[in-house]
């Protein structure tokens, strides 16, 4: 009986802890090199994740470590399944969620993909199809996961591929939360064995007799129509035979799904919508005009492009329309070269994701690494490194707290957007493709190739810049809309005020009829500049075009349909207004809480706004909430029928604005009009780091500690800056004091007169202080500054580069060349200042 009681207590404990797994906390990619993992190390690392504020891990088996080939655990072998189950069980005990890829590396493929099921490419030779294997193998495959990439258009390839997992998971109870599919990277794949038959069945003519149209470079209307039909068929096959079978199988097995649809030749909105958690990707560094924000000069925009919020909105739009609570992102990939990424570079990228509708961040990422591995441990080939040997590991909990604070609010609220912008993908399909396989790949890296140059992209960018709130909608999704009053109603019970059709040439007849249905029910529809000119579809085009033009005439007669070259005027007539937040140079997302209150997340990713009154779209009172410290305050005034709030938001800062139904008193507005610079001499004591602690030093003027003698130019670690100063005479009259640390490389832990007052880790490096802490004379300011690990790695790669011992791509730099830090110049380190007290 006693043993049964103990067992029940343990089971109850596991159940309770399993309920504490948080999606508000950030999760992380967790690469298993060769799956050379041990249970005790798994437990240690999961505990480390928990301590730092990580909510979950995503297991990705990849290539192995040189010299440890015999210790590698083949993917889906009994031993692999055992450590996977241990990870899930241990994760539940610790409150850590676990996801996994339905495969190894990327994209889907492996040893059970025969040539008949492998990806195929077709080129036209003398008017006939020349079909061959792409011969692409799984990229970064783990032992046991090697093999051909799956044919994404094949009728049975996905179901056959998944039989391997059916066998492996049979009888296993401890399974991950989610299955994951990485971005579409089946390069050159543009055909399948029954493509010609499927094309004829769907498009009603023979593609084999019209193949030359696919490569026709002349402005031939017939060729454009055939290219549209070709892409339409690929898109349908990809959705029906690849995305939906995988999500259906996952659901039947009890998994939720995370899906990176980008890179596909299909309509991203439909593909993202197939998953429980649509996932976008933030790769590289955005060019934010935030003073002090660094961009790695070696990062190649030409090679990789930059993150773009419009591309991110494809994932969030699919989630919003279909009532999916979570929208995730692969976050922080290649923000800078290895050992050079700071927390201050990460936060603005996450803020951009939040404003784009993302609310479930996955860091990219963390490598499984044995505790005994020589520094820096086992590392993934692509930066950023979020693991325990990262130079910002000590301060990472602060970023994690910030992310959790924001995501808790973003996940528990609903979208509150006014406009649905139709995505006219047929206009894109009509053009010659710039990607491999002569097809359009809608990737996140080069949005200029498929999004920004289209009227759709230009319109969306203008809406974003002007402060309109909107989501995207596809042809397929229009049929799921209903009407409530004169508003659009989605299956998830989300409302929109109008549909906006960008200037376009082609439109399917089905889409036009859906627009006619909605307008007849009272929905306002605005066409930018012109109505579409041509119906898509090559078969019977002449007769279909006549019918299309009749439908257009009928649609135009509806009083709710407008063609406009002045969108602001037309939107205003439909009671759709822009938010002044954007006009001030701020970036935002507007949402609704469960009890109906308005919620804004606002971030300053530019350099035009500091403080001022901002009008909001509503007559409610608003509370400003600081997600870094949790401080809330009211600062509002009425301005006609709209509310104004007083915002103090420097470049790099962010906040929530939450409406309240209670009419409280406006908070006191504090203006910082005075400044006092704290000047040297500064005492510098090196506390801990690599390779050796340099000798103590003094600086009259703050500059990088790399100018000091001894080993300072190679030192990576923490140094204590100390200074004694007298407070300015008028400081005691101030209720609010801010310590502005100027340029910090990279984080600063601050004490004033022996009391810890906070850690500055993001731009602007500022800490609010209690004026009562100051003495008239002999105040002691102590600042512990931790720099990047780059300077030590300069020395390490000269003396002991043996840490780079990984298979496959091993370690490369940000240009994908062999990694070598020994040629780097020293990275500025320490407290660069100026250090100021800013007060009323």
UniProtKB/TrEMBL annotation:
Domain Beta-mannosidase-like galactose-binding: 720-804
Highest taxon listed in the record's lineage: Bacteria
Pfam families: Glyco_hydro_106, Glyco_hydro_2_N2
Keyword Signal set for record: yes
Keyword entries, A-Z: Hydrolase, Signal
Entry protein name: Beta-mannosidase-like galactose-binding domain-containing protein
Secretion signal span: 1-18
Transmembrane segments: none
SUPFAM superfamilies: Galactose-binding domain-like
